[in-house]
Specification:
Blueprint: H1 9-13, H2 16-41, H3 56-62, E1 71-73, H4 79-84, H5 89-96, H6 130-144, E2 150-155, H7 162-173, E3 178-184, E4 187-188, E5 191-192, H8 193-196, E6 213-217, H9 221-236, E7 242-247, H10 265-272, H11 276-286, H12 292-315, H13 330-333
Parallel strand pairs: 1-2, 2-3, 3-7, 6-7
Antiparallel strand pairs: 4-5
Helix pairs in contact: 2-3, 2-11, 2-12, 3-9, 5-12, 6-7
Length: 335
């Protein structure tokens, strides 16, 4: 018999259906963003987008212990967070396409998807913009006694913003139920963390605010779930905030306008070999939760889900020009 102590945390903690569901969400994130990239190339999507291909384990692993009552705040690279929290893919694509059936009725686009019913308080085009919002949500949960926890996603570039320090300090003073999850993909736009951040690991900054800080392999689903689940449990028990740093990597450029001249092909190839979906698939096959054929069938199924979502978005009506200023205020959104 295998030693339980040597069994990965995720295998010990979650049942087969939950683990299969996690891999399915990781595939959906990857296929969604590949579909969005293809749609952009075909001229169906305008503007820009920030893809998180290569970061799927961070998004899904960080949301494993959350319910719909728990909240997240996201970033400009937030498609994976939306899917991990249970967003409808057809509505997401409709938002990308500027259609009425989108989450923001086509007015927001890639960087402004929110799904309050699922606890997703929204992506944010402002670097670090979600940090104070997350603190506000956590303060509300504490004052109302809901028991909800907020997970705040942000990138490495945001850790040098004033909002980062203000948010962590306030959350610690008030012992708020919030978990700060830094997705450190090594570059804030084109600037490496080595050139922008004084500490080696962003999680070290937790010490200044009297909270736990841990750095984990953000491409290892089990390592992410263990770190974030521990922080969520601590927050839910009234013990206050934590900082989790997921070391990961985006395979694509910062945005669609990125010419990628600051990274070597060798560096990108090296990180692609650490594919989080490949690692998760191998984990489930090794522990006999899925077979290789099961994984292949699951990938094929998610590809069809994405095609159906794109078809839904294409069929969605475009907003009327006369309605361009509608749905700006909350009292109009219910109309």
């Amino acid at each position: 018999m295998s030693d339980p102590k040597n069994t990965p945390y995720a295998i010990r903690t979650y049942d087969a259906d939950e683990l299969k569901g996690a891999l399915r969400k990781m595939f959906l994130i990857r296929k969604f963003e590949e579909g969005a990239e293809d749609s952009y190339t075909r001229g169906l999507i305008h503007g820009t987008m920030h893809l998180s291909i290569g970061q799927e384990a961070s998004a899904v692993g960080s949301c494993m212990s959350l319910s719909d009552d728990d909240k997240i705040t996201s970033t400009h690279r937030g498609h994976g967070h939306c899917v991990a929290k249970g967003a409808n893919l057809g509505r997401m694509f409709a938002e990308f396409f500027g259609k009425e059936d989108g989450y923001c009725r086509g007015r927001g686009g890639s960087m402004h998807i929110a799904d309050v019913a699922k606890g997703n308080l929204g992506a944010n085009g402002i670097v670090g913009g979600g940090l104070p919002i997350a603190v506000g949500a956590a303060l509300s949960a504490k004052r109302l006694g809901t028991g909800a926890v907020t997970v705040c996603f942000f990138g490495d570039g945001a850790n040098n913003e004033g909002a980062f320090h203000e948010a962590l300090n306030m959350a610690a003073i008030w012992k708020l139920p919030v978990v700060f999850v830094c997705e450190n993909n090594r570059y804030g736009m084109s600037t490496s963390t080595e050139k922008s951040t004084a500490v080696k690991h962003i999680a070290e900054r937790a010490a200044a605010y009297n909270m736990p800080g841990v750095t984990v392999d953000g491409n290892d689903f089990s390592a992410v779930t263990e770190a974030v689940d521990t922080a969520v449990a601590r927050a839910r028990a009234g013990e206050g905030p934590s900082l989790v740093e997921n070391l990961t990597y985006r395979w694509r450029g910062h945005s669609k306008s990125d010419r990628n001249r600051y990274r070597t092909k060798e560096e990108i190839a090296d990180w692609m070999e650490r594919d989080p979906i490949g690692q998760m698939s191998a984990l489930l096959v090794t522990h006999k939760i899925m077979s290789e054929n099961d994984v292949a069938a699951l990938e094929s199924e998610t590809e069809q889900v994405i095609q159906d979502a794109i078809a839904f978005a294409n069929a969605s009506p475009s907003p009327a020009v006369a309605d361009a200023t509608r749905f700006v205020y909350t009292d109009d959104a219910a109309a």
